[in-house]
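Researcher: Next sequence.
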Amino acid sequence: MQGDRMKLLTDKAELEVSFLAPEAMQHFVSGLFSKQHFRIGDKQSAVNFRVEKVEAVPLPDFKPAMIYRTLSPVLVSYKTDEERNAHYFKPDESEYSNLFLNNLKQKSVSAISHGLIQSFAPGDGEPSFKLSDGKQRSNLLKIKADTPAETRIRGFMYSFELTAPLLFHKIGYLGGFGEKNSLGLGCVAAINKKDLTLEHETTEK
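Model: Next structure:
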């Protein structure tokens, strides 16, 4: 990393793309991306890529209680009709948990209505969210940077534990947690408590 730039030191890179889609579409998606060309960047710097290989990554073994580490910032906000700007909540604020979980519930309703997943039983339990530790890092992001339509939003990087029906885990893991998932926000990695402990010990040293 050099400031807000990423310097590529090789002519090959791996990009993990995650989205919620019916399993029957996997072969279609692979064919859709295969041998395609695309460009990543902005007005200051950019790079062209050609897709050489597409493969499906195995999903985690989802359990009712899972620990996740954010790979891209999670954004949770709220704005009333009277307010001009949205308030971007920190993960340790009291309202954060309810907004985070309500967003996940809304995604689930939408996914079920569009036939992306099957409905789940009402008795699957009420979901809960909590930080795995007190560490959180703020990320201020520019949307449509260096254009008249530029806006700024704020997300956070952290680790958290989610207790919820298995389908909630699958929806969040594939579709993203929080808001603005189409911009790449809310992507996570599933980790276990042992790995989390080792990460903390390494950081402290």
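Model: Strands lie at 37-41, 46-50, 65-70, 77-78, 87-88, 128-143, 151-163, 188-191. The mean pLDDT is 85.
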